[in-house]
Amino acid sequence: MKLLKQDEHTGMAFNCFYAGDAASLLRKYSTDVFDLTVTSPPYENLRNYNGYKFDAKQMLSAVYRVTAPGGVCVWVVGERIAGSRSLSSFEHAFIGRDVGWSVHDVMIYQKKNTPFPRSNAYTPCYELMLIFSKGKPKTFNPLKTPTVRNGWETAVYGKGPDAVNRKRAVKLKKEKVKNNIWQYAVGFGGSTADKVAFEHPAIFPEQLAKDHILSWSNPGDSVLDPMCGSGTTCKMAHMNGRNWVGIDISKEYILIAKKRLASINLST
Ligand SMILES: C[S@@+](CC[C@H](N)C(=O)[O-])C[C@H]1O[C@@H](n2cnc3c(N)ncnc32)[C@H](O)[C@@H]1O
């Protein structure tokens, strides 16, 4: 892989973490330097991150500027449910479009285990994954899934003049392109087996980050997580031969992320 040491115009480093407000720190990178962002904003204003009020418009604009033409930003957004839905995930889709992104897809991250039932509504089990792109995506490596039926099968291919179905043997494909609802187990052993990651309250699964990294980038590309929390995206980018940058406003979370990265470097 091509190891990027730094932004050649500004000297900002790759393959490292920064603590601070991402919208400000990203101003120190040149335009068009990242191929992919995989990130997840804080859950509304439920959590107060070092006194910062999260500004989705500012963050989505900052990420747009540093994204290369054809680059993608995967924005995994959960919603507050306090009596009723806040609809912030929909709001973020419109904000993203207003600041220049194309909404390439709206995917669903379905959680296999659902710890928070509601007494007067069905149990919430998903978050949206907004797939923003800067123009037409330049990379799409579709992930495949095994088909239920495969091998040889007799299939109807039309009717003869006697109105009787004509049949022939056809070979069914062993796999097909996945659909846009992705399911993951969450919690310890599901999201990750790194105990230290759970010192962060809201991580997403390693497999989710990996699936997006493989889908929307190639080895040697640069992957950003401007709200990296425990460093899930950065860990998966590193393990899959991508350059990466992780930013978080919280110094404590950056320490967790560094510990996770250090432990894979020790074990590889
Ligand atoms: C939902 S968490 C991300 C978790 C991460 N995906 C993981 O797997 O660990 C959102 C993160 O955004 C960070 N954050 C909030 N405002 C920020 C800002 N202005 N700049 C950088 N990070 C910010 C929070 O500290 C928090 O760790």
Give a concise summary.
The chain is of the alpha/beta class. The chain has 2 domains: 16-143 and 179-267, Vaccinia Virus protein VP39 (Rossmann fold); 144-177, no CATH class. The relative contact order is 0.19.
Q: How many structural domains in the coordinates? A: 2
Radius of gyration: 21 Å
What structural class do you assign from the helix and strand content?
alpha/beta
**What are the bound molecules?**
S-adenosylmethionine
Tally of contiguous helical segments:
6
Strand tally: 14
Examine the coordinates and then state which fold CATH places here, giving the name of the CATH topology of the largest domain: Rossmann fold
CATH class of the largest domain: Alpha Beta
Q: Termini separation (Å)? A: 16 Å
For the largest sheet, list the strands in their spatial order. Answer: 1-14-13-2-3-7-6-12
Shape: globular
Low-confidence stretches: none
CATH architecture of the largest domain: 3-Layer(aba) Sandwich
Q: Find the CATH superfamily of the largest domain.
A: Vaccinia Virus protein VP39
The main pleated sheet reads as: 8 strands, mixed
What percent of residues are in strands? 25-35%
Order of helices and strands: EHEHEEEHEEEEEEEHEHEH
Q: Could you tell me the mean pLDDT?
A: 92
Helix percent reads 10-25%
Characterise this structure.
The protein has 268 residues and is an alpha/beta fold. It has two domains: 16-143 and 179-267, Rossmann fold (3-Layer(aba) Sandwich); 144-177, no CATH class. 23% of the residues lie in helices and 30% in strands. It has helices at 22-25, 56-66, 88-98, 206-216, 232-239, 251-267, and strands at residues 16-19, 34-39, 67-77, 81-82, 84-85, 102-111, 126-133, 144-146, 151-159, 165-172, 175-177, 181-184, 222-225, 243-248. The chain has an eight-stranded mixed β-sheet with strand order 1-14-13-2-3-7-6-12, sandwiched between helices. Helix 5 links the parallel strand 13 (222-225) and strand 14 (243-248). Helix 5 packs parallel to helix 6 (251-267). The longest helix has 17 residues, at 251-267. The two termini are 16 Å apart. Bound molecules: S-adenosylmethionine. S-adenosylmethionine binds next to strand 14.
